[in-house]
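User: I want to check something. If I give you two sequences, will you return the structure for each one separately, not as a complex?

Assistant: Yes, each is folded on its own. Here is the first sequence with its structure:
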Amino acid sequence: MEQSNLSAKTSPGECRQCCQFCDKLVEPASCLKMGCRFIYTYREEINGRLYFGCLHKVFKVEIDQEMMQEIERSKLGFGGVKVHEAPLSHCPFSVDSTFRGKGKEFDCDNMQFFDCSSSDRYCYKVVEEGSERTV
């Protein structure tokens, strides 16, 4: 399949231009901690639980806030959710590669997926294993 056809079928949160198959993940717990103004909450009438989500649909799911906070206290934490729409400038995200391998077919063809360029209207704070950098 041609790369242009493959690229057309991906969302802003995924890259399929090489054999690594990368996905952007945003950590909703970080959105709450930073007090993001685009987080909304609502209380479910039936069970009385409080849920939150992103107005810009950077992450598409609505999350039970009490459950997430309980999981955050565990050793592993809540973790990331796949990015649905392009992250905003203040959204911390990480990139997870599905496949790792050696050889030309595993060489990244889209380094801009990890960073932003000066012409990009979005810039990202990239959180990688063991390090953090702003681009």
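And separately, the second sequence with its own structure:
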Amino acid sequence: MHLDQDFTPRSIFTLQQKQKMHAVSQEFAVKSHKGKRWEWVGGLFGFYQQTHTDGPVDFRQDGIDLLITKQTNNQLAALKQDPALAGMPDITIDIDNRNLYIDGIYKTPAYGAAAFGQATLNRIFIDGLSATVGLRIDYEHTRIYHHTHATEALTGRANVTINMGNRPPMSIQQPFILPLGIDGKESMKNRPMKGFIQVLQVLLFFVGGIVIIAIIVNKSPASLFAGLGASAAILMLVFKDSILGFVAGIQLSANDMVRPGDWITLPSGAANGTVQEITLNTVKIQNFDNTISTVPPYTLVSSPFQNWRGMVQSGGRRVMKNITLDLTTLQFCTPEMLDRYRKEIPLMADYQPEAGVVPTNSQVYRVYIERYLCSLPVVNQDLDLIISQKEATMYGVPIQVYFFSRNKVWKEYERIQSDIFDHLLAMVPKFDLKVYQYSD
């Protein structure tokens, strides 16, 4: 279902909804023979139902302007009316996003059980007159778990105007990137339940089949179950994959090793993508080239694999690359070199080496890299930012650049790191250095 939820001519926000339901139920009943004066029936009933609903909301241009930009600017203007904040500069914001897509995942598990009984006394005083009494006890439990998350950051500009008295006002425009993570209650932790449902189905059909056979051959079900003990080895061989899958499913769920929606990578290269489904016998993974890989659940227990969930839930995605400098271009900086760096490179305008230390041009370049990364809003300053020199090799001196990008979306992540390293490589000659380039 796709719905224009605001019901107005303006493009504020739309809603999509997809729903998938899995259910299993079973009833066992025991009855007396018909035609007797005293007839009775009793039994048990149980069910489990899992409903998965995807209901993402897509805020469009009018919605962002009305609900975010306008409301924020109104609140900033209201703050300025406070006498205690009379000297506050004029601040407004502009949002660059044309739309803002927010996932909405809802899971509604429900289960219940019932016990029932009914008794009938026939031919009371006369034929055709009977009395029936019955009782049914039901229990049902339903819960709702939800998880919402904005898939992209909010980007824009903060416009600050400072009144300078008799002088013209000074205007500053500062770009910003605001990562959004709107998390609802996630008690369920997206644990895979389909494998357990399939095991329950197998057990119920197996027990039901034994009871049906017992009725047909007029034997007690207990005697048939006892006879199955002799063929236990054959049954274990027939249901080997199901048994291994069931045990692996318990381990995967109990240890929270993998969930539907996780990005996982297998070292063998058999899969690199998003987990779509976890069943009794297979784990279905959609690779990034849109192919589907299926692996047995016990493979994820018996062999190592990489789960990227921690990166997705953290504040950034790691970037770690090397810039290899030509060893022959490293040198100590003269005062003239340092003066030139301060004049030609704005970020180095206030650079002063420690007292008594004569820095190398490689050292000054590392300082520049750190200052440049700290000036970028796309770099998460709360996570590690490390610029280090690694051991020199026959190919030069590696400068390792290690930081975290706030934007974790694959396309934007690749663009951000490519732009950063383009800049860093282009700045190498400014520090009288050269990038090592192998040639025969």
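Because they were folded independently, the notes below concern the second chain alone. DSSP finds ten helices and 19 strands in the chain. The longest strand covers residues 100-121.
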